[in-house]
């Protein structure tokens, strides 16, 4: 699998998820498919930084692009979710990706001062949860986990990589469920888990895809790069408009 294929799969599965929540009453199969998307996006954020970390100009441009997408995507996300252009009840996935990317920069810059890295990780998790970003605080921590996987496990066999990734995503899912349960006790956690337990199918499917990554970008051009960059806010805006027309 190449990054190009991951991008195509991420866009398709993300669209499936949003169609399910917007038009098909949360159809379980579509939502399970949709679980693949964020995990691929999170992995590609980590992989992207890994290849850009020694290229300051491209790194700076990527930060600016992610920051701009955060702002634009928030309007599109709010419009899709509520029909309003501004709503603070929840935030889009883009701030999660942005915080994660900045965190990776800090990880490398302060590698000899791990206490700074730990403080940032904790702060980004805190911000993600209390600012009501998508995926609670677990999403941004997953990006950090993917980065360490890329650095230290990227050359292992597909089977070993899948086993490592499966263990990693299992921990992530348990933490995410706990956050959804508002950090309640075992019964609250179990209740939250039972509601979304089938999402694990999509999670493990994503890990299998990532385990087959061959380290190559694959085919692509500037036009596709632009489409991929704007697809998240664009498709949310279109779906929001369709929702408005259908009401």
Large-scale geometry: globular
Question: What structural class should be given to the helix and strand makeup?
Answer: mainly alpha
Strand proportion? under 5%
Mean of pLDDT: 91
Low-confidence stretches: none
Straight-line N-to-C gap: 41 Å
What is the number of domains? 1
Helix-residue proportion = over 70%
**Count of beta strands:** 0
Task: Give a verbal description of the structure.
- This protein has about 250 residues and is mainly alpha-helical.
- The protein has one domain (about 5-245).
- About 80% of the residues lie in helices and about 0% in strands.
- It has ten helices and no strands.
- It has helices at about 5-25, 30-50, 55-80, 95-110, 115-130, 140-155, 160-180, 185-195, 200-210, 220-245.
- Helix 1 (about 5-25) packs antiparallel against helix 2 (about 30-50).
- It starts with a helix and ends with a helix.
Question: Tags for this entry?
Answer:
single chain; 247 residues; mainly alpha; 0% strand; globular
Summarize this, please?
By secondary structure, this protein is mainly α.
What's the SSE blueprint?
Blueprint: H1 3-23, H2 28-52, H3 56-82, H4 94-109, H5 114-130, H6 138-153, H7 158-180, H8 186-196, H9 199-211, H10 222-246
């Amino acid at each position: 699998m190449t990054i190009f294929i991951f991008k195509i799969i991420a866009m398709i599965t993300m669209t499936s998820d949003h169609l399910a929540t917007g038009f098909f009453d949360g159809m379980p199969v579509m939502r399970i498919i949709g679980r693949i998307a964020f995990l691929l996006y999170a992995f590609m954020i980590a992989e992207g930084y890994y290849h850009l970390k020694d290229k300051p100009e491209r790194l700076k441009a990527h930060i600016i692009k992610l920051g701009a997408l955060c702002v634009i995507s928030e309007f599109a996300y709010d419009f899709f979710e509520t029909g309003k252009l501004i709503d603070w009840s929840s935030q889009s996935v883009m701030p999660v990706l942005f915080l994660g990317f900045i965190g990776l920069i800090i990880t490398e810059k302060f590698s000899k001062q791990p206490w700074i890295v730990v403080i940032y990780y904790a702060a980004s998790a805190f911000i993600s949860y209390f600012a009501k970003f998508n995926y609670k605080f677990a999403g941004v921590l997953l990006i950090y986990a993917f980065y360490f996987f890329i650095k230290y496990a990227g050359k292992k066999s597909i089977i070993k990589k899948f086993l490592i990734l499966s263990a990693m995503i299992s921990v992530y899912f348990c933490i995410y469920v706990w956050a959804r349960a508002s950090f309640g006790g075992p019964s609250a956690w179990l209740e939250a888990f039972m509601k979304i337990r089938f999402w694990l199918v999509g999670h493990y499917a994503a890990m299998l895809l990532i385990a087959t990554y061959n380290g190559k970008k694959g085919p692509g051009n500037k036009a596709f790069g632009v489409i991929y960059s704007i697809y998240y806010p664009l498709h949310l805006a279109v779906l929001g408009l369709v929702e408005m027309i259908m009401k």
